[in-house]
Design a protein that fits this description.
single chain, 357 residues, alpha/beta, Rossmann fold, 2 domains, two-stranded antiparallel sheet, 14 helices, globular, binds 3'-phosphate-adenosine-5'-phosphate sulfate, EC 2.8.2.-, Sulfotransferase, NST/OST, signal-anchor, membrane
Length: 357
């Protein structure tokens, strides 16, 4: 008998349903449906299925963990620079998502380092039509010789209409990356998260300092002649901020309309606005909106609200939004003067003023 098709009493009054003797098959089927939903549509959830097997008189709880990829934790940030871990993570996601195919990414977050690339990836991947690799694959810089099949194997499975993405911020400054990406597909949509190059350089230095505490001072590295001379644009932390210079290379392989620029500053002050524009660029329905964000005062950054699944609210880990090392005012002013003409050139190239002053 079908559930709910219980007999009617005389006078057409519906009788109360008989108590289910064995409710567990139904409970299980609901849970299995939920797990499948998670595997298909959410790369972000870990579902704990609690199955009660109930031989008479015995109550036993069985815990099964179905991982659909954990994105926002510290572990993931450690893995950011570990392509081997990238493989293991995405395969764990694909083993739970048995549906769809692994496709080469149709959109890439190519930069810039310390611009806010992790926030963009984590925010856009809550869109049901976006599936993302949580880790930095470094395919178009360090791992290119592994071939496109290897790269494809890292991708999550996607269904018709879904897009797959990855982010590796070093692509933006890698000379070969534009040509290699265009060779994969010249239709690839490119996303560049840009941030005031002076703040970006200090953020970059702050990160390096946490790994190498005996590093020379920022001033010593940023200026020649032991911190007294001209700006040293050969230092990576400075060079990355020469956005116009790097963009030129991309523009010889991709039209400007295929490159979307996210403002790292607005990403913090108005994440929903930036995500709205990004969804438009990707041809997605605007599903990620201000409903998804709240400003976490302790963190000092926007975080994702508690999802309906009941998981906790999610902020990026502690390596994102660090307190920067203090830099002398004169050094900052000299860097501002140095970057000004490069910034103006960049604004002209992209047709947007990011107001870095
Ligand atoms: N919502 C939210 N939460 C936390 N942090 C946020 C957020 N939005 C943007 N940012 C800024 O992102 C900066 C780190 O940039 P990336 O993720 O591109 O860094 S990395 O290149 O992947 O290491 C990070 O830089 P620092 O503040 O210097 O740590 C943040 O300023």
């Amino acid at each position: 008998m079908l559930l709910g098709a219980y007999p009617r009493r005389r006078y057409g009054v519906r009788a109360a349903p008989p108590p289910l003797r064995r409710p567990w098959p139904y409970v299980l089927s609901v849970l299995v449906t939920y797990v499948c939903y998670c595997a298909l549509f959410s790369a972000d959830a870990t579902v704990v299925v609690i199955v009660r097997r109930a031989p008479p008189g015995e109550r036993r709880l069985q815990k099964k963990s179905v991982s659909c990829v954990l994105p926002f934790d510290e572990k993931m940030e450690e893995e950011e620079r570990d392509p081997a871990a990238a493989g293991s993570r995405s395969s764990s996601s694909s083993s739970s998502a048995k549906f769809g195919n692994k496709e080469l990414p149709s959109a890439l977050i190519v930069g810039v380092k310390k611009g806010g690339t992790r926030a963009v990836l984590e925010f856009i991947r809550i869109h049901p039509d976006v599936r993302a690799v949580g880790t930095e694959t470094h395919f178009f810089d360090r791992n290119h010789e592994r071939g496109l099949d290897w790269y494809r194997s890292l991708m999550p499975r996607t269904l018709e209409g879904q897009i797959s993405m990855e982010k590796t911020p070093s692509y933006f400054v890698t000379a070969e990356a534009p040509r290699r990406i265009a060779a994969m597909s010249r239709h690839t949509r490119l996303i560049v998260v840009v941030r005031d190059p002076v703040t970006r350089a200090i953020s970059d230095y702050t990160q390096t300092l946490t790994k190498s505490p005996h590093l020379p001072s920022f001033q010593e590295l940023a200026f020649r002649n032991q911190g007294l001379g001209s700006v040293d644009a050969s230092w990576n932390a400075i060079r990355i901020g020469l956005y116009a210079l790097h963009l030129e290379r991309w523009l010889s392989h991709f039209p400007l309309q295929q490159i979307h620029f996210v403002s790292g500053e607005r990403l913090v002050s108005d994440p929903a606005g930036e995500l709205g524009r990004l969804q438009d660029f990707l041809g997605l329905k605007r599903i990620v909106t201000d409903k998804h964000f709240y400003f976490n005062r302790t963190k000092g950054f926007p975080c994702l609200k508690k999802p309906e699944s009941g998981a906790s609210p999610r902020c990026l880990g502690k390596t994102k939004g660090r307190t920067h090392v203090a830099i002398d005012r004169w050094a900052i002013q000299r860097l501002r003067d140095f970057y000004r003409p490069h910034n103006v050139r960049f604004y002209q190239m992209v047709g947007q003023d990011f107001r870095w002053e």
